[in-house]
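Hey all, quick one. A colleague (J.T.) asked me to put the adenosine-5'-diphosphate job into the tracker so the inputs and the structure tokens live in one place instead of scattered across chat threads. No bug as far as I know, just bookkeeping. Sequence used:
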Amino acid sequence: MMPDFRLRQREYLLEISRAMSARLDLSSLLKLILESAVELLAGQAGLITLRVVDKFAPKASIGLPIQAVHLFEPLWRDLDSQNQSEEPQDIDISLRLALASKAAGVAMRQVVALPLEIGKETIGYIFIFRTRGAAFSANDRQVLSAFANQAAIAVQNARLYQQVTAERERLNTIIENSGDGVMMLNRYRIIQSWNKALENMTGIPAEQAIGRPCYEVLNLKTAQGVSICHTACPLLHPAEDGRLYAEGRHQRADGMFITLADNYSPLVDEEGQTTQVIANVRDMTRLREAEELKQTLLSVISHELKTPVSIIKGYAGTLAREDANWDKQTLAEGLGVIEEEADRLDRLINNLLEASRLQAGGLKLNLSYLNLADMAGALVEKLQTTTEKHTFAVDFPENFPLVRGDFERLREVLTNLLGNAIKYSPDGGLIIVGGRVDSVQHKLRLYVSDKGIGIPRAEQERIFDRFHRVDNRLARQTPGAGLGLYLVKAVVEAHGGKIWVESTPGQGSTFWVELPLGDETTRGYTL
Ligand code: ADP
């Protein structure tokens, strides 16, 4: 071989090894290796096998019909991946080449094979074929071997890179699809990643969260509105037991509050510096609500059930005293109180049962055509006998249309609204129950208005929640479990309607019930 040719060869080798080390994509790297090796050795075709577990498998080829590649398998069949640096024997390999070429229908006459080695490990073989000309010389082998060493390193790098990338993608998929919220923070608490579960929980899309500090995005607060993220972030003030945990309320963009529990796991470098923090976020809203509800239920039961029971017991005990000789009127009055309190107990128990039934999702309506004006008139007549302080008015237009609904349940609705009007106007005053027709929208409205204590603006939606009572002196003195309006709302909604209140504290309240008319009234019914 000419010395200047050797020089050019060396330069070429150098150039290729640079190009190879810059490539991390395995398939394009293998292609480059083959193209270069074939050119270097003036061959016409080439093939690379790589070790897969304990066997070699073809991974790239040039100059061979792709469907024929597997026919060359005898060339590497006995190459033991455990037995390093084994070079196939020439005679044997020539024979195998001749057979494989025949089977594949290609005319490959010469082959040279060299292992790709990393240290003592053979990671694959490179085969170069000639269709004509001289056999591969010792010099060819030498050149290819220098080249193979470089190629092996490049292949190993690309494989490692591929593994790391695959691992990272696997991890990302796990995080992305985890049922729990997972976010990654840098050491300055800036959000680096934000998974789907977090998007669903908070309604904040990843692109809006990433790049912002977590204390701004989550902004957890106590029930009293004190910021936990700004004053008690566990990453800045770890607990004594080392646990990095925070729980607080997050307000979503739609105004809803959710309770989130965050567990933080910092990743530290060799110097003990935090590089990243993985935060696992759980939605505890339902759990906390259920706990709160249990507490409320217990206190409601203990308070609301105990009071009538002790009154009943007191009266019954007194009336039954053997040493007393009660006159008829005292007896009647005492028994009247007992009956009243028993009724109260009965109502409360029914409400509790109804509320739990509602929660289980079953509210059945018994439909017929109803005259709500008549229903209101009858109720007012009955209620007028129970109070002296209040006066009642019934205000329905002539020919108020019939509505399709459940008689018992709609009567419950009016009874509840009228009962509240009486309860929450302790100084008496006018209570009006009336109706309006909106023929354009095909709807009708009922209203109950009073001149009572009224409801502050902030409470006007919440009074329809289970067990919610406005905290004031009157409410504390007035019996009630905060279930009435919750049940009223459920019944109205089951009729396809809605309910709301207009009120000015100190002046009174008007509750409005809107129901659809005609065919639409059947919408939303469970029959
Ligand atoms: P309860 O009367 O048993 O407490 P409700 O669900 O019927 O339960 O009412 C919830 C709360 O709404 C009451 O505790 C009261 O604070 C408020 N509220 C209801 N109706 C009226 C009204 N007409 N005027 C003022 N406040 C009312």
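Adding what we noticed when we looked at it: The CA atoms of residues 396 and 435 lie 5 Å apart. Residues 416, 420-421, 424, 450, 452-455, 463, 468-470, 475, 480-486, 509 surround adenosine-5'-diphosphate (CB under 6 Å).
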